[in-house]
Design goal:
There is one protein chain. Helix content is 33%, strand content 27%. It is of the alpha/beta class.
Length: 230
């Protein structure tokens, strides 16, 4: 499957020099600076793969983990869902709240580090979204376990992320191998769920030279089994 990268996403992918390590780029301070100085980093439209999946879904309780500036959460709210977004950046959360107000929709946004200081209420959401929440292995496993815990039986975890192959074969995305995912890692992380999709997908990214290159992402859709009756 192939999508097309928005100008905002392309600007973020190609217009800035990455810090030397993920640990420098992934701090609260680094994210606050990024969101303060670069406007709406990934634009205001939802991720194209999420829009393809979620358009037409019946209203449900949705959790957006690592919601950033709120583009996905707010769009989901416009579709009639009851949405909660969580992010570690206070700047991003304030921007998400403003976007929701501008679009006259209700969504709950909370500042929290998903890995370190957020505890889900088990089974409290029908759909859990993780959109480019790129984390090193230990943190990734913690976040994905919490997503699994948060989703209700019969509910769905939906994830889009930069694929491990993207550094060598793709374009854009973080240049840190430890925060990129592949099919095996996700299958292990979500082994308690029924995997409907766990596969590489592609986005067209137009470079400053006018050439179109493919970004390599990974898309997972998984459902939590229903609890046995009795």
């Amino acid at each position: 499957m192939t999508g097309t990268t928005s100008p905002a996403e392309h600007a973020e992918a190609s217009g800035h020099v990455a810090p030397a390590s993920y640990h420098e780029s992934g701090t609260v301070e680094a994210w606050n600076e990024r969101y303060t100085t670069r406007g709406m980093v990934w634009g205001t439209d939802p991720n194209r793969f999420l829009a393809d999946y979620a358009t037409g879904l019946s209203p449900r309780r949705v959790l957006d983990l690592g919601c950033g500036q709120g583009r996905n959460a707010v769009w989901l709210a416009t579709q009639g869902h009851r949405v909660t977004g969580i992010d570690l950046s206070p700047v991003a959360i304030e921007q998400a709240r403003r976007m929701a107000a501008d679009r006259t929709v209700e969504a709950l946004f909370e500042v929290a580090n998903v890995v370190e200081d957020w505890t889900p209420t088990p089974g409290s959401f029908d759909l859990v979204i993780l959109s480019y929440l790129q984390l090193p292995p230990h943190d990734r496993r913690v976040a994905h376990a919490k997503a699994t815990e948060a989703v209700a039986p019969g509910g769905t975890v939906w994830l889009i992320a930069h694929h491990s192959d993207n550094i060598a074969d793709g374009v854009g995305g973080p240049p840190y191998p430890e925060v990129l995912f592949d099919e095996r890692a996700l299958a292990e992380d979500f082994s308690d769920l029924d995997l409907l999709r766990n596969e590489k997908v592609y986005r067209d990214v137009e470079g400053e030279d006018g050439l179109v290159r493919l970004a390599h992402d990974i898309l997972l859709v998984a459902t939590k089994p229903l609890e046995p009756e009795g």
